[in-house]
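Dig into these lines:

——
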Amino acid sequence: MAIPLVVGVDGSEGSLEAVDWAADEAAWHGVLLQLLCAAAGEREASAVISAASARAGKRAPAVPLSSEVSHEDAASALIDIGRNAFALVLGCRGSGDLDDMLLGSVGLAVAARADCPVVVVRGTVEHRDARFGNVVVGVEDGEGSGTAVDFALREAHVRQCRLVAVHAWSALSGAYTTPQAPSWFLEAHRRPPAQVLDDALRRPAAQYRDASVSRLLIEKPARPALLEAASTADLLVVGARRRLGHPGLQLGLINHALLHHAPCPVAVVPQR
């Protein structure tokens, strides 16, 4: 049985925007699109599934569809189905201006605990409809970004667009540094910023030799650096580490901020 791309639907405008995004994504990757409606009565669930199916069929007529109604709470249902999913796609919550900016408790729980990539569809229609031609991936020093880079480069490949790999770094106050020649303190504790990007991209870029890849080194904290890069992105991809001895992922303050405030869809990719 094919591994599906799963989108959570609840009848809200945010979830219908997620259906649009997921239909495009399923078409690009040639996978089944599965609609999941949780925590609703039978009649309500049937109406939600029907509206979402019509929306997906209009957006991507060639994409095969399936649907499921779960009587678990929404977060548990999504996490369960995500154990055998290509990715989980969710919309932002709410109907007011402030609510539309924020991610609800279900979205945060799923992003923190799912075994597969989780995409939160947010931002303007220009960002959601892939009009910029850029996929941005955040690259950190260490092992946490490897799977995210793989995911991002595959996304750029199927979309036939550019991958922008961003690494944000900070030097000690008063230290003279460059991305290629950091201070002695940075040299002793971590790799030069340019090397971080080179090492992260070397293996996946070899798989997609025709990919257009840009490297962006920004000397500032990661949160504003990634939000700035995402302003002209169709998708922002970040990694999440497994927590030793605990279920779920370590989202961290940066990922929380991006899930709440990024100007474009955000994919949280668990480290393998």
